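Quick question, first post here. What does this chain look like in 3D?
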Amino acid sequence: MDLQKLFEVYREQGVPHDQQMLIALLREMQDMAGGTLTEDVLFQAASFYGMKATLLQALIKRVPDLRMANAAHRLEMCASCKAGYGLRAWLEDTYGVKSGGSSESGGFTYRTTPCMKNCKNGPSIRWDGDVYSHADRSLLIKLIEGKA
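> Answer (accepted):
Ran it through. Tokens below.
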């Protein structure tokens, strides 16, 4: 199925007004594109539905299984964990990333989150939706460099 037909099918299902259907559309677009979304397909969808691409990008940031091609992975770190302070500082310095942004290499997006309710096992991180306890530099390197 091409994108235009897909857009028409989802329009009948309530897109762009139904957020759950919009997420379903983004997931299907991602599957069609081989596992990640590109800026081009986002702009096509935004144009078709008469919406801003930034709305779609904001939605993608909030749904763990949606990924942009320029940042195929998502890293979240607990901002409340005092044990993780040094790890967050190291990550930001080493990979040139700040919360809410993408790494300099473009391989992942990064954001700090409120408490993950895993304090006794901290510091905690979430990589592509999976929670890791007792996170350290070596774990982050393995995940970021694809060796995990």
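Residues 3-62 form one domain.
The chain has two domains: 3-62, 73-144.
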